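Quick illustration for those who missed Monday's session on complexes.
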Amino acid sequence: MRERIEAQTAIAFNLTKGKSLKLIDIYGKQVADFVCFSSVDDGEQLSTKATIDLNGTIRLSEGQQVFSNRYEPLLTLVQSSVQYHDLIHPACSPAMFQNLYKKKDHPNCLDNLKGILERDRIPDPINFFMNTHMEPDGKIKVNEPLTGPGDSVELHAEKNLIIGIAACSVEESPCNGFRCTDLEVIY
Ligand SMILES: [Zn+2]
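Prediction with zinc ion bound:
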């Protein structure tokens, strides 16, 4: 299955244990907000904090796993054509657009994911391709993604999962290179 994620929208689908997905940045510099849930255990979902804890790093690199709030592996990152993915930032949201940009009714990843997944509660996402730089003093800066057209990640499911992916809606900062574009998923 090959599915387009139009700019400033989200998609959801099921991924069976043992299957893989490939997420492609079609034009480059586009962040993907990625969340997942166990499809058999309603209380188990992505935890970026457990992922940071178990991998011992704020980055996510090829060969490392994505963990749940139960500290169990959900996915393995089997391929990544760039080095930077963000595990720190929340999904962009109405509150974020209001607070940082004084904008109302802006498309946003949180509402897009809530809508497509039909869930009120969405865990903090993995922001694939997001280029967050941390200074030695702890300050963080979001730079433009390093992805060019066709850069991708590939993930292998370690459990039966429900997956939600949003093409990030921020066009006001370097996060997506100041413009929002489409992504593609093959699963
Ligand atoms: Zn976003």
